[in-house]
C-alpha cells in the first residue's frame, strides 16, 4: 500500500524524528489526534475522579499509540543497519517511554483479570457457591486497589515533578490593611499557628525566624523555616491572599458588632541548599537596631535586631527573634537567600507558564485563594470551588487542612497533565 514502509527500511526514514528530544516516531498524526481528543476531554472533566479520567477513550488511544511507538523503537534498536549516531538518540527515547509503557501494560493485565473475575462471579450460584463468591469479591477488591495504585504511578510518570518539591520552605505571613486592622492581625496569628500545627502533624521541624506582634494580641508579620519530607510540595499552594469575614471578638472593631472583611497574605519560598545560591558580602548592607517585640531583657536595650539589604535587587529582610545579634544575622541571611532563590524559581515558572488561567502553579502569590467566612462557618477555596465546614477544626492544621492540600495537589497534577498534552500537540504541529 502506498506510504507503507517495511521494518527493514523504516530506520533510515524515521530516525530523523528523534533528533529533538521527545520527537514522535511514525504515525505521529495518530498520536497528535488522540492528544487533541484528550485535551478536549480534560477541559470538560478536569475536576472529575481520576478513575474516570483514565477510563476515557482518548487517553487509552494516546497510551496505545505510545506503546506501539515503544515497540517499533525496540525493533529498530535490533536492526544492524541502524547508524550508531542515531542509535543513541533512539535509545534515549526508548528509555524515556519504557516506564510509562510498563505501567500501562500492568494496568491492562490487571483490568483483564478483573473482567475475568466478574465474568466468573456472574456464573456462580449466589446460594450454593457463596464461599467462592466471597473469595472472588476479595480478590476483585485487591485487583481494583492495585489498579488505583497503578493509575497513580501513571500520573506520576506523565506529570513531571516540580524540581523544588523536595526542598524545605520559608513561610511568611503578613497582615493586610483594612479599616479594622485588628481583625487582620488576629487572623494572621491564627493562620500562622495553623501552619505550625500542620508542621507538627506532618512531623516537620518548624523554626520561627521572625515574629512581629500587634498591640492587641495579633501579628503584623511572621516567618518560619520549615524542614522535613516534601515540605515545599505540600505548602506551595498555600501561597496567596487569604480573606476573612467575621465579627471581631477583640480589639476596637469588636465594639461595632458587625461583619468585617480583612485579608492576610502567605508567601511560600523553596529554601535553597547552600550550593544553590551564593551571596557576595559586598552586595549587602547590614544594619542593627533595637528589637521591638518579645525577646527578654535584651529587648530595647541592645542592638540585637538585624536588617539586611541586598543592594543589587533591593530586597530587604530583618530578624529580631533571637537575643543574639549573630543568630538574628544568620536567620536573616537564610531568609534573604530564600527570596533570591525564589526569583530564580519564578523566572523559570514564567518561562514554562501556560496560558491557562486556572493553572495553580502560575497563580500570583497576591491572588485571593481562600475565604474564611466565620459567620457562616464556611471556608471556600476559590481555585477548585471546594467548601469546608467547621473553620475552627480546619485551623487546627490537621486532617482537614491536609485533605484540602491533597485535593489541590491532585487538581494541579491534572492541570499539568493537560499542559503535557498541549505540549505534545504543539510538538506534533511543528513536526507535521
Automatic annotation (TrEMBL):
Pfam families: PCRF, RF-1. Residues 290-306 form the Prokaryotic-type class I peptide chain release factors domain. GO terms for cellular component: mitochondrion. One of its GO terms (biological process) is mitochondrial translational termination. The keyword Protein biosynthesis applies. Transmembrane segments: none annotated. GO terms for molecular function: translation release factor activity. Keywords: Protein biosynthesis. It comes from the Eukaryota. Belongs to the prokaryotic/mitochondrial release factor family. This is Prokaryotic-type class I peptide chain release factors domain-containing protein. It comes from Pleurodeles waltl (Iberian ribbed newt). The lineage of its organism: Eukaryota, Metazoa, Chordata, Craniata, Vertebrata.
